[in-house]
């Protein structure tokens, strides 16, 4: 039987991170049953309201903050810092993307929060780490993950790197931070002690490029972007079909070369000395890719799909996002979820994890600004009189609608 409430039931998280990477980590923890408290400044998280939908929900905010409770506290005040500390003292995990300088300013460093609460897991997400010249450099995934981490350069063709997509590096990094926090929770089970956890966007980018970089580390020469027409083998590249849709092949090795030639209607390539071996195909790559382009341009993608599947080739359609959302296999994966508690039905992206024996899923909408401030402070031991004073002075906000 699954544990009631999910595998993280009983785990409490204070999410003091802004924008996407840290909050999406906490949202995944909420999906799996954690009680996540979202800490925002009085002016609100930068992500809130960034992407508007006419007469609809706030899609980015709902995606990365679903299932949380919300508090709004002014950390520039001494009373606000004390209120945040009171909440953190009730939590198992403190999660932030504050720079080291801001953690020091608000007394939210590991030493500050764990001195009297050694069981706490202090998790920080940074652009470039907490040491070195760039430890306090502000970053988004576009700058630290895609740009400085090398992702854009290696993905593009020479002279024209592509643009990164919003949140893609953040959500990848969130999975690494989630893994780190879960490992720290397991370590705490074994030792009784919490610990300090940190991941950096730049390092996660390096990990995602590990297959390329490991070759460069071994040979002393890093792989570089190349033109599609220079791909050493047509078995591992993409082609445009007659209907302007693209297909992408990935068949490393030699075993699929005969079937590929047959499917394209060029069985003679198998014995053509220009293409008969892996080495020959690489040497004559531009000529071969051009010939493959001409062959694949004779039929639409649906036709090639039937032919490739019949021959057992390994391929995938390059789909646009409308096709991805409508893909029946995405539905089989449970890739999308309905969010409850909003004025109208709203769909969002599900956690990319499956635990067959666990209770998990989107727990509800994201919080309004300061929606649960009074309740969370009361749970942390702050008296009604103290809460009223904090509200009167504007140090905390409560029950403010989106």
Task: Give a quick precis of the structure.
With 402 residues, this protein is α/β, with parallel strands linked by helices. 39% of the residues lie in helices and 13% in strands. The strands form three sheets. Strands 6-5-4-1-2-3-12 form a seven-stranded mixed beta sheet, with helices on both faces.
Question: Could you please describe the fold and organization of this structure?
Answer:
This protein is of the alpha/beta class. The chain folds into two domains: 12-209 and 352-397, 3-Layer(aba) Sandwich (Rossmann fold); 228-319, formyl-coa transferase, domain 3 (2-Layer Sandwich), CATH 3.30.1540.10. The protein has 18 helices and twelve strands. Strands 6-5-4-1-2-3-12 form a seven-stranded mixed beta sheet, sandwiched between helices. Strands 7-8-9 form a three-stranded antiparallel beta sheet, with helices on one face. Strands 10-11 form a two-stranded antiparallel ribbon. A hairpin with a 5-residue loop joins strand 7 and strand 8. The two termini are 39 Å apart. The relative contact order is 0.14. The model has no long low-confidence stretch (mean pLDDT 94).
Structural descriptors:
402 residues; alpha/beta; Rossmann fold; formyl-coa transferase, domain 3; 2 domains; 7-stranded mixed beta sheet; 3-stranded antiparallel beta sheet
């Amino acid at each position: 039987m699954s544990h009631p409430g999910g595998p993280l039931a009983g785990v409490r998280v204070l999410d003091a991170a802004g924008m996407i990477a840290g909050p999406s980590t906490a949202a995944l923890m909420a999906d799996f049953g954690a009680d996540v408290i979202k800490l925002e400044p009085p002016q609100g998280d930068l992500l809130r309201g960034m992407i508007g939908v006419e007469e609809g929900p706030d899609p980015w905010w709902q995606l990365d903050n679903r299932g949380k409770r919300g508090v709004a506290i002014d950390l520039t005040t001494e009373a606000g810092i004390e209120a945040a500390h009171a909440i953190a003292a009730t939590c198992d995990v403190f999660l932030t993307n504050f720079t080291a300088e801001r953690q020091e300013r608000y007394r939210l460093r590991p030493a500050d929060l764990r001195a009297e609460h050694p069981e706490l897991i202090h998790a920080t997400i940074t652009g470039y780490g907490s040491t070195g010249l760039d430890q306090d450099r502000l970053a988004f995934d576009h700058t630290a993950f895609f740009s400085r981490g090398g992702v854009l350069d290696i993905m593009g063709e020479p002279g024209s790197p592509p643009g990164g997509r919003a949140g893609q590096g953040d959500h990848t990094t969130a999975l690494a931070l989630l893994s780190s926090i879960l490992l720290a929770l397991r370590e705490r089970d074994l030792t009784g002690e919490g610990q300090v956890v940190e991941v950096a966007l730049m390092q996660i980018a390096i990990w995602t490029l590990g297959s390329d970089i490991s070759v460069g580390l071994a040979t002393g020469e890093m792989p570089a972007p190349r033109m599609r027409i220079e791909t050493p083998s047509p078995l591992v590249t993409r082609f445009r079909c007659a209907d302007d849709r693209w297909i992408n092949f990935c068949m490393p090795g030699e075993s699929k070369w005969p079937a590929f030639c047959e499917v394209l209607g060029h069985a003679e390539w198998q014995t053509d000395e220009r293409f008969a071996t892996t080495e020959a195909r690489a040497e004559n790559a531009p000529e071969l890719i051009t010939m493959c382009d001409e062959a694949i341009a004779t039929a639409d993608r649906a036709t090639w799909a039937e032919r490739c599947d019949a021959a057992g080739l390994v391929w995938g359609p390059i789909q646009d996002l409308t096709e991805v959302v409508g893909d029946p296999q995405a539905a089989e994966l449970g890739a999308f979820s309905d969010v409850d508690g909003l004025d109208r039905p709203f769909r969002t992206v599900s956690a990319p994890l499956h635990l067959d024996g666990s209770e998990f899923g989107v727990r509800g909408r994201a919080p309004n600004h300061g929606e649960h401030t009074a309740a969370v402070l009361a749970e942390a031991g702050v008296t009604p009189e103290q809460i009223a004073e904090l509200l009167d002075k504007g140090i905390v906000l409560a029950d403010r609608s989106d």
